[in-house]
Amino acid sequence: MDNLAVLSFLALLPLLLVGVLLAGFRWPAKYAMPVGYLAAVVVAVFVWQMSFTGVLAATIEGVIVAGTMLYIVFGAILMLYTLEESGGIRSIRAGFTSISPDRRVQAIIIAWLFGSLIEGASGFGTPAAIAAPLLVAIGFPAMAAVMVTLIIQSTPVSFGAVGTPILVGVRTGLADQQIVEATIAPMAFGDYLLEIAVKVATIHGLIGFLIPLILVGMLTRFFGANRSFAEGFRIWKFALFAGLAFTVPYYLIAATLGPEFPSLLGGIVGLMIVVPAAKRGFLIPRESFDFPPRRDWNDNWVGKLDDLEDHNAHKPVMPLVKAWAPYVFVVALLVITRSIAPIKAWLTSPEMTIAFRDLFGSGINASVQVLFLPGTILILASLFTFVLHGMSGRDYGRALKASGTTMIAAAPALLLAVPMVQVFLNSASDSYASMPIVLAQGVSSVVGDAWPMFAPLIGAMGAFVAGSNTVSNMMFSLFQFSTAEQIGLGAAGAGTVVALQAIGGAAGNMICVHNVVAASATVGLTDREGAIIRQTLIPMAYYVVQGGLIGFALLVAALVAGIVLYGLSNDQLFYGLTAAGLVVLAVAGVLIFSKSDVVQPYTQGVRIVAKNAMLWVMFLVCMSTSVFFSFDSRFNVIFPKDQRERAAEIRTTNQVAGVVADIGETISSRRITEAETLFRSEGWQAYEGQLASLSRASEGAEREIEAHFTRQMEAHRSAIAEQQERIATATSGQAGLAGKKIVLTDELSRLKAERPGLAADLAGKKSELDARAREVDAKRVEAMAEEKGVEGTLKSGRGPMYRERVGELGRLRDYYKIGEERVRDAEKRLGAVDTRITEIERELAGVDGELAKLRGEADTAGQRIAASEASQLGQEGQAVDPARVRAAFERARADFRQQPDQERLASLHQHCVQLYDAMISTEATKERVRDIDCDPKQAVEAAAVVFALNAGLKAFEANCAGGDKLPTVGGVDPLLGFGRKCLQDSGLPSVDSSAMGARLSAIDLNRDDKAHNFVVSLNAFQDGNSLAYLALAIAIGMDALIFMSGLFGANAVRSPLSDVPSLKARNSQELNAMIEAALLPDTFRKARLVVQSMHPIENVEGYSNEVRLDELDPETAVQVRSVLNAGAVIGAVRRGGQAGHYLVRSELLEFLNTVVKRELERNPDKAERGLALDQFEDQLVVALLPDIGASCDAVMSALVPMDEDRGFTSQIDLDDVDDDERPAVLNVLNTGATFSLVQRVKGTESYFVHKDLYKTLARIRAREMARGAEQARLAGPRPAEFRGALAEQQLVLTDQTQKAAVKHNEDDERVRAMSALVDPLGVDAESYVMLDAQVLRTAGQASEDFYALRRTQSGLDYFLRQGDDEARREFDRAFSREDQALRPGDGWKQRILNAVAEDLEQNWGIVMLLPNGPYERALGAIVEQLEPDNANEILAGDEKLLLATAQSLLKSLQSNARRSSADWMQLQSLFHQLQRVPVQQAGLGDGKRTLN
Prior knowledge:
The protein is mainly alpha-helical. The chain is about 75% helix and about 5% strand.
C-alpha cells in the first residue's frame, strides 16, 4: 500500500476515533481509549506490519508510563488532602481571597503565573497536578480548575523542566544530522539552537500574552452564572497586564540567559509584579466575579475534591507562611533536582533507574526514575506538611485513603490511553515510517509551499499523541527542518519553522488525552474528559492558527521584503516586525474600545467582522490568495525560467564576490584585533611572566650555559658513535647467519625433491606385499580343499597333490617375509628424510629469528641516531653558539611579538627549553629556574583564535582572494558553494562567521532560479522594475477597496442589537427579525409599551433599564413579556434581583426606539393613532382620579353594549348613572370626546363610546386591581401568631363544617415550617413573623443599601459572602429535611412549606440582617480576630478600615431591635453614611486579609 493519502488517513484513524468519541459522543476516556487502542493495534499490525511482540512491548511501555503518571497524580492528591486535613488550605484560601476575591484574578495568579513557575521547574504535567487541586481548594469547580490549568500549558511549556523541550527535544531531533549541518554551515549547531530558542520565545510572547484574557473569558463563559465571555473580558486590562508581566521577562530571559529559565524566572517575576498590583486593585474592575452558589453548579462541574470536609473549622486559621511552606518546599525541590547538575545526575543515574531493556526483543525500552519523579517530591512535601503542621496519624491516614481512592478512579483511563499512544509512536517497520511521521508527510504533500502555516498543527498533533512537547520535538524537528529546506526557506527560515513546531507542541498539551485524564484525576473528576477537551480545543485552535499565521507572515512576506527592499538582517527585521505587531495590536485595541463618533462606525464594522469571524477569515484568505496568484502569474511571464537563472547568476556573482571580499577584510582586521587581545589576555601574560623570569635568571650565567651545551654536544656525539657500533655488530652477525641459512635451504630443497620418489617406492612395495598375502591365502585354501577331498583329486587325505600344495604354500610364505623386509627398509629411508626436513625447518626458523633480532637492533640504533640528529642538538648543534643562547632566546621573543604565529611560538618554545635545560642542569643556576615553566599551553589557548585566523588567511589567499577564482560555470550553486567554502576555511569566530553565513543564506533564499515566485517578485522590486511597483500598487488598491467595502457593508447592515454580547453568531437580519416578530401584530404600539415600561437604572454590565412586570396590567404584561422573551434569547434581557423584574440592555432600548421612529415614518397614520391613544390613556388616568379603580368600575358598569357602528360599540345614558358616580363618568366622557372616542346622541343625554375607550378603561382597571391585590397581600390581616409576609393562599372549596379547624392547623403549620427553616440560621422565627407589611418594605430598602455598602468594600463583602454561603447551605439542608419528612398525604403541608420557603427567599437579605443572624455573627468574628492585632498596632490601613466598619455595624446591630420601621430606617441611615467613605480609603481590592 503506497498511496500516501490512504496511509495518512489510516494513521489518523485511531486519533480520529478517540476525538469523535470523546468530544463528539462525550464518551468517558475509560470507554473511548480501548476503542482507540484496538484501532491503533489493528492498523499497526495489518497495515504497518508491526509484529505482535512489538505491539506487546509498546503496550507494556505504555502501562509503565501510565504508572508513573498515576504516581504523580497520587502525590498531588495526597498533598492537597494533607493540607486540607491540616487546615493549611483554609489559610491559603483566605490568603488568595485577601489578594482579590475576584475569581478571574485568582485564576490568573494561580494558573497562569504560579502554574508557569511550576512548569518551568518541572514540566511534564506537574502544573495541573499542583495548581488544579489548589484552585479547587479555594472554591473553584473541579472542571473549571482543570480547564484553566490546561489552558496555561501552552506558553511556558516550550521552556518547561528547565528548557527540556528545546535542549533535549529539538537538540535530539536536529543534532548530528548531515542536512542540518550542511544548511547552517558555518554556524555552530549550539548557536543555531539558541537562535531557535529566541524565536520560540518571541512567537510565544506574541501569542501567549493573550492567554490570560482567553482564560478568564473561558472561565466566565462556561462556569459563570450568566455564561458570558463578556464577563471575563471586562477584566481585559488586568489580564493583558498579567500576560505581559510574564511574557516580557520570559522573552528577555530567553534572549540573554538561554532556554533553561524563561518559564521559571518569568513566573517568579510575573508573581512579583502582579500579586502586589492585584492587592491594590490595579486595573481590576469594581464588579467582582464569582461562581454561582454551590447548589446551582452543574453536576458535571463537580469532582470528589469539591466536597472536601473542613475538619478544622473550629480551629484558628493557620499563619499564611506556614500554610504555603509545603508549596515552597515543592518548588525548591523541583528547582534543586532539575537545575543542579550533580543532584540531577545522581537521581537519573543507572543505579537510581528501574530499566526494562529491549522488551520481548522488540528494541523498545522503558525506564522509571522514581526519585526524580514529581510524585516523590509531592509525597515528601506531604510528609513535610505532616511534621510542620503537627498533624495526627489519623488525619494523615484519612488523606492517604482518600488519595488512593481518587487515584484508582483515574487508573482505567490512563492505563488504556498511554498504551495506545505508545503503539502509535512505535509503529515504524521495514515497510513504513511510524504513523505520526506518515501523517505529517501526508499533510506536507497537500499544503506544499504553505507549510509554515501548518507546522504548528503537526507539533500539536505530536503533543496530542505523545503527551509531551519534548517528545513531539524529538519526532518532528528534523521533519520540519527538512520540509522547510525543501521549499527553499534556508537556514533562518528552517529555524523559524522548527520554532513553530515547538509552538504547536506546546499548544497540543492543552488537549492531550492523558494530560486531561491526569489533571482531572488530581481533582477527583472522572469520565468528563470529552467535555474538557471540547473546551480546551478553543484556545488550542487559537494558538495553532495564530502561530501558523505569524510564522507564515514572517517567512514568506515580511522577512524577504525587508531583506530585499531595506537590506535588513533577519534578526533586525524579526524584532522590528515584533515591535510593529505590538503597535498594531495597541492601535487596534484603542480603535475597538474608542467611543469617538468618527471612529465608532468603523470599529462597529470590525466588531461585526469579528462576530462573523469564520466568513471573514475565508474572505481574507481568498483575497490574499488572489494577490498571491496575481503576482505569480504576472511574474511568470515577466521572468521565465531562463531569465530567472541568468538574473540569479548575475546577482549571486556580485553578491558572493562582495561577501568574499568582506571575509578577507574581516580576517585581516580581526587578526590585528585578536593579536592585541592576545597580548592582553591572562594566558599570554602568565606565559610572558615565565619568559621574563627565565630571562632575568639567565643574566650572568653565560659561562654555565656554554659549558652545558658543550657537554651536551659531546654526549650527543658519543651516543651516535655507540649506536653506529651496534649497527656494525648487528650487520656482521647477519652476514654469518645468512650463509648458514643458504646451506640449510639448499639441503631442504634436495630432501624435499627426494621424498616423493621414496614415498612412491614404499607404496609399490606395500602393494607387492599385499599381493603375496593374497597368494598365500589362496594356496592355503587349495591345500585344505585337497585334504578334505572337495577339490583337486577329490580324494581325502594328505596325498601327493596335498604335499605339492603345501610345498608351494611354504615358498609363497618365504616370498612374503622377503616383501615385508623390503617394506620396512623403504619406510626407514622415508622416515629419515622426513625427520631431517623437520630439523632443517626448525633450524631455519631459529636463523630467521636471529636475523630479525639483529635487524631490529640495527634499526633501533639507526632510529636513535636519526632522533638524535633530528633533535635540537642534532639539527642546530653545529650552528648553535653556546655563548649566544640567551641572545637567541630574546630574539625569538621579539619575533613572536612582531608576528604572532605558530612557527614563531614553536621557535620561542625551543629557545626557552634550551635555556631552561642549560640552567636546570647546572648546580650553580638550578635554583634560579626551579619554578619556571616553558610549557606554552596557556599561551596556545589564548592564541588559538589568532592561529586559526593565520591559517584561514593563508587558505583564503590561496583559494579565494582575487576575482579570478570565482566559478564561472555551473550557475548559482557553485557560487554559493564557493562562498561557503571560503567562509568555512576563513577561521573567523562564530560571531563573524554567523553574520557572513546569514548573508550567504539570504543570497540563497533570494535566488530567482529556486526561490518562491513571491521572492522573485520582490527581487524584481529590488531591480527597479516599474511594472512590478505598478502591479503591487494596483493589487493593494483593489484589495483595500474590497476590504473597505466589506467594512462599509458591515456598517451598513448594522443593527443596535449586533452589539449585544452573544455566543451564537447571528447577523443583523436575524436579530432584528427575532424582536420584530415579538412586536407583531401592532409593532408601533407594542414597541411603545415596552419602552414606556422601562425604568432607568445605573448601568450595570451594559444593562441600563429595568422592567417590572408586577407594575403592569395583565394585558400589557403579556405583550411586554413576549418582547422580553425574545430579548432574553439574544442576550439583551436577564432576570433582575427580584421576581418579575428584568434588566434590559441599552441596545434593545435603542432598537425599540428605532422601530418606533421607523413606524412613524412608514405608517404615519397608524403611528399617530397609537400616539394619540397613549396620550388618551394618560389623560384618562388623570380624569379617573382620585380613586381610579372605583371610577373605572362606575364607568364600565354604566356602559351598555350595542351593535358596532364606525368603531362605537357601547352606549351610556347619564340618566341611568347614580349621582355620586356622575362626576367620574362625565370626566371620562369629556376626555373621550377630546380624542373623538365619544359621540353624543343629539337631543339626548346618551353617548356612544368607542371600543378604544372601553379597551383603555379595561386595561386601567386590570392594572389597578393587580396593584390592589398586591397591597392586600402585603397589608392584609394575618393571624396574631403569624405575621410574616407569606405567599398568597389559594381559594379552594372546602367543607364549611371543617373550615375553622383546617385554618387553625394551617396557621400552626406555617409557624412550625417557619421555625424549622430559620432556626438553623440562628434567627428567632418570631423576629421575622412580627414584621408587618410596612416594616418589611422599609427593611427591604435597608437590605438593598446594605448590599450597596458591601460592594464598596470588597474585604467586608468577602467575609459576609462566606456567611451567605454557609446560611444558604443550612437553609437548603433544613428545607430538604422538612421535604423528606412529608408523607404522601401531606400535600397541604407541602404547599405551605413551599410558600414559606418562597417568602424567605424573596426576603433573604432581611432574614440575614435579623438579630443574631448570620451577618451579625460574621461581623462579630471579624472584630474578634482583628482587635488583638489592632491593639498591637500591626494592622495596615485597609485592615483598620475593615475593623472600624465591622465595629460600627456590629454595635448598631446589637443595639437595634429591628422591630419597627424606625429601627430599620436607623440602620439604613448608617449604611448610607458608611457608603460615603471614599473608595480610595475603602481600599478596594486591598481591604481583605487572612484572619488568624
